[in-house]
């Protein structure tokens, strides 16, 4: 009888813990673990910073000491080129990659990605995982509007996309990225192509200050270079934490850029690849991202602070667009040569 009461009590506690608590922890498939032991290796390509990637790889190796991981880090363009060159030479050297959203379609078109539905995706919203299983968001960032708190009163800050293109902000008062292709992609998905293009032309009409580099632009904004800035929420939040005179808010729907994790179609160590994929999306793996000041995607892992990915409507940028055509369109709108 005591055992029965204990079991009932444990069940009630699990319900009180909130939705998702009972399914947030998963155990690796024993067959996958056994296969990974035989493989003994895992090759990881990434665009995430080397120091942070190494922390994750080291934690993974501590959890699975029978796997020897190899880490290679570079930028998105160079990484794609490396993968393509290797594939053309018949060399399939990598198992898992974490890259930028624009890498997805080129890899899929060349049939270089494997379909895999991790059990951890049960704790991840549907818009952050491919229905076919070719990618899942590992972490995210959102395009938001920041303002210098001494130059613009909070009540005067534009709260909508429409308010942002008011003529009173004309003449370099808005800092805008000259490569914010993902934002255009996202608004095309949310509003349709015609409306999104028309809106970006209105942004161009108020003559924003165009410059590359989100970190640099936000630093200049904090120094009072311009009153308004469209950039990544994570970059703004770092400046807020340092006490800079800057704050931010999302214009809804906020465009979210997802950094996907993907498995190679011809991974030399497919079981080890699945283990690393699962670990990256697990609660333990996602909590590591919070500690690195990145924005996790799991429902049961809170960003720090939560407003980074909670409390606003969003749209994930569209990876199925013709990226080269989008870049050309963007440059035409802003007359970038």
- Average of per-residue pLDDT values: 91
H and E string: HHEHEHEHEEHEHHEHEHEEHHEEH
Q: Helix- and strand-based class?
A: alpha/beta
Share of residues in helices: 40-55%
Low-confidence stretches: 1-24
Strand content: 15-25%
Q: What form results from the Cα inertia axes?
A: globular
Number of strands: 12
Which helices and strands appear, and what pairs or packs with what?
Layout: H1 2-16, H2 30-39, E1 41-46, H3 50-63, E2 68-73, H4 76-88, E3 96-98, H5 104-109, E4 113-114, E5 136-148, H6 161-164, E6 174-177, H7 181-191, H8 193-205, E7 209-211, H9 214-222, E8 228-232, H10 233-241, E9 246-249, E10 254-264, H11 270-281, H12 283-291, E11 295-296, E12 314-316, H13 323-334
Helix pairs in contact: 2-11, 7-8
What would your notes on this structure say?
41% of the residues lie in helices and 18% in strands. The chain has 337 residues and is of the alpha/beta class. The model is unreliable at 1-24 (pLDDT under 50).
Summarize the structure.
With 337 residues, the chain is α/β, with parallel strands linked by helices. It is built from 13 helices and twelve strands. The N and C termini lie far apart (78 Å).
């Amino acid at each position: 009888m005591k055992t029965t009461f204990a079991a009932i009590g444990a069940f009630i506690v699990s319900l009180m813990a909130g939705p998702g608590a009972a399914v947030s922890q998963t155990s690796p498939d024993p067959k996958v673990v056994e296969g990974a032991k035989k493989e003994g290796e895992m090759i990881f390509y990434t665009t995430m910073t080397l120091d942070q990637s190494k922390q994750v790889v080291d934690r993974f190796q501590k959890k699975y000491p029978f796997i020897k991981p190899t880490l290679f880090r570079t930028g998105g363009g160079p990484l794609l080129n490396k993968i393509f060159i290797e594939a053309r030479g018949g060399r399939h050297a990598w198992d898992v990659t974490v890259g930028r959203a624009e890498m997805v379609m080129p890899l899929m078109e060349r049939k270089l990605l494997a379909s895999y539905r991790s059990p951890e995706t049960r704790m991840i919203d549907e818009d952050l995982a491919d229905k076919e299983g070719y990618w899942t968001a590992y972490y995210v960032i959102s395009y938001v509007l920041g303002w210098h708190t001494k130059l613009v009163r909070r009540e005067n800050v534009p709260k909508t996309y429409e308010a942002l293109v008011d003529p009173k902000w004309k003449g370099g008062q808005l800092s805008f990225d000259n490569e914010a292709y993902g934002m255009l992609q996202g608004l095309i998905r949310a509003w349709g192509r015609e409306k999104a293009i028309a809106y970006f032309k209105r942004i161009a009409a108020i003559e924003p200050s165009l410059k590359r580099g989100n970190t640099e632009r936000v630093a200049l904004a904090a120094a009072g270079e311009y009153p308004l800035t469209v950039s990544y929420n994570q970059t703004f939040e770092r400046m807020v934490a340092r006490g800079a005179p800057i704050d931010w808010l999302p214009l809804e729907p906020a465009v979210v850029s997802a950094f996907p994790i993907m498995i190679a179609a011809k991974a030399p160590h497919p079981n080890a690849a699945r283990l690393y994929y699962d670990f990256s999306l697990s609660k333990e793996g996602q909590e590591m991202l919070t500690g690195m000041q990145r924005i996790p995607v799991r429902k049961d892992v809170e960003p720090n602070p939560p407003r980074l990915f909670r409390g606003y409507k969003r749209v994930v940028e569209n990876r199925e667009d013709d990226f080269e055509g989008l870049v050309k369109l963007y440059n035409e709108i802003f007359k970038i040569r």
